[in-house]
Amino acid sequence: MAFHRPDHDVTIALVARARRDPSIAPLLLAAPELPAHILAWAGDQA
To answer: pTM for the whole thing?
Structure first.
């Protein structure tokens, strides 16, 4: 089975935590694979 293992530690759980605690949102910027609206929101929190 083939799968992609990203070079970052961003998980769905971290995205959910960041939505509750925007102070950690900039950590999401390490995952360029995230949807553009999530990355834009995370960038606004930085």
So the answer is: 0.85
